[in-house]
Design goal:
The protein has 373 residues and is mainly beta. It is built from 5 helices and 28 strands. The chain has helices spanning 14-18, 312-321, 325-334, 341-361, 365-372; strands at residues 6-12, 26-32, 35-40, 44-54, 60-71, 78-84, 89-94, 97-102, 114-116, 118-123, 135-141, 146-152, 157-164, 171-175, 178-182, 186-191, 197-202, 212-216, 219-223, 228-233, 243-244, 251-255, 258-262, 266-271, 277-282, 288-292, 295-299, 304-309. It has a 4-stranded antiparallel sheet. A 4-stranded antiparallel sheet has the order 2-3-4-5, with no helix packed on it. Helix 2 packs antiparallel against helix 3 (325-334), helix 2 runs parallel beside helix 4 (341-361) and helix 3 packs antiparallel against helix 4 (341-361). The two termini are 29 Å apart. It is found in: Cytoplasm. Residues 23-296 form the CNH domain.
Length: 373
Amino acid sequence: MSVKAFKLVSAVEREMLMGDKNYINIECIECCGKNLYIGTNDCFIYHFLLDEKISTAGKITFAATKQLHKYLGLKKPVSELKAASALTRLLVLCDNTITLVNMMNLEPVPTGARIKGAVTFALNENPVSGDPFCVEVCIISVKRRTIQMFMVFEDRVQIVKEVFTPEQPCAVAVDGYYLCLALTTQYIILNYNTGASQDLFPYCSDEKRPIVKRIGRQEFLLAGPGGLGMFATVDGISQRAPVHWSENVIGAALCFPYVVALDDEFITVHSMLDQQQKQTLPFKEGHILQDFEGKVIVATNKGVYILVPLPLEKQIQDLLASHRVEEALVLAKGARRNIPKEKFQVMYKRILQQAGFIQFAQLQFLEAKELFR
């Protein structure tokens, strides 16, 4: 049964990006605070400022203002963008090279510092160095079966470690010393400090695009066999039941308590609390779905959209209004980590009371008694 958890709101219309140039496609996006960066197939980076507006009726819209755009000088697409806000740097992957550019003027750093030979890369969101003016970057190298760890500073890069993998890696996420890797035939966890590795489960990267996403400290979300979204910790165990996706998921994102997935026709929303599918939004030609500091963004080749979450209290009240007491209580308990303690206790008491009256009206006196108690 459905819950209205998100609304899809347009952020960047195609005209703002490409005018009448139909050949321009969006290849990648990055969002950092109000700064939205878009990389295109014709080797440009666009910088927009996103302004969130709330009408008196509570409707949310986004106004994107173009700041500038920059041509990188190659005939290749910009494949990945990652912001390192502490350094005011944007890491740009184009033609197997990661270049450091200034986040505000998009100019390359004067020293020309870059990382060559990268197929794809990931930032370590749980860094081990303890240096606030450095980001740790893991790259899948163009060298066969090789992963490299770098420390990236404002104007220089330094290689820290090179690790060899049993098969060719094709996707990576990092947490501390742990790498979660999609290899050709399986997912593994690899500790790059000790070299210890742990097999997770088989997966054929030739048939489907692997998904490897860090969702919290020492925990990852993976696209498993049979259309399952699987959770795995660095110890190689799963502390949550899997969610049932479609077979052809392209991307996944987390917006607690929901896991959002994109396939070629729909955006689906599953609850991490009870694994149920809660919402389906038709969305054709989507090819990017990512979350940035809690903001979930989807994109087609021509436009960028934001999935705006409805307030959890509103979702709980909608469930109670439909007499879905169990689901409302599960969501209310899950909301604890998103709401200040005092406010949560007041809200939770009120929800228990409402749920009690619903059960009472349905002559479920024992359940109602427990809730009132």
